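Here is one chain, start to finish.
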Amino acid sequence: MLANYHTHTERCGHARGTDREFVESAIEGGFQVLGFADHCPWVFEDGYVSHIRMTPAEVDGYFASLTALKKEYADDIRIYIGFEAEFIPQLIEAQDKLLADYPLDYMIMGQHFNKPENCGEYMGVPTSDEGLLREYVDRIIEGMDSGRYRYLAHPDLLDFTGSKQAYEEHYTRLCEYLKAKDIPVEINMLGMMNNKHYPTERFFRIAQKVGNKAIIGCDAHVPEFLKDSSVMKLGKAFADLMKLELVESLSGLD
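Its structure:
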C-alpha cells in the first residue's frame, strides 16, 4: 500500500494549493491512502494569532472540505483527516474542546515547540544546550504517553550541536521508548528533498541500533510533491540504507 499521512493545506499559511489539488496529485502519484495532517490550531487565551498553523475558525472549513473530498474520491483513494501537533500540556484541554465534535481520524506529533509558540523557542535551529534536548525528549515521551499521536514526525528536528555523548544518550532514550511503545519514527521527505538538517544518518543509526520501525512522511506543502515518484523511492532507499523496517500503513483508522 502506498500511503502518506503527512499532508498540509494552505490554511497553515506556509503551504500552497487547494485541497482538491493535493488529492488529485496524490492519485496521479499512485497513492492509495492520503492523510491530511495540517498544523493543528491552538486556542491562545491572550488572543495570539499563529502564522504557522490554521486558526480555530478554520477548523470547520478543513473538515467540511476534506469530508466532501473523501466521499467524492472514494473510488480512487482513501482519505483520512488528521492533524500534526505539538504536545503543549497547558493548551491541551482547550484544543480538545475545540476538536471534540469533529470526525478526527488521527494525529501525529511534530514537536516544533516545547512551550506555546508565542513564548517558546523553535526546536528546528542548531543548539548546544543539552537541557533543551533533554526537555525536547521528555516532552515527546510525555505526549506519546497520552496516547494522542500515531507516530513522531521529523524526530530529529532538534539540531543538537553539543557533545556526541549527550546526543546519543538522549536520542537513544527516545528511540528506546518509541520501540517499547511500537511507535514509528518518520523519515521526513520534505527535509530530505530540501536539504534540511533532518533526516540525519546519525539519528537513524541510533534508531537502527535500537530496532525502531520507520514510516515515510512526505510532509507535502505543495501538491506537486505528491506526484513526484522520486520522493517515496528516496525514502525507501534511506530506510534500506539504515536497515529499518518500514510501516507502510497505519492500522485501525477504518
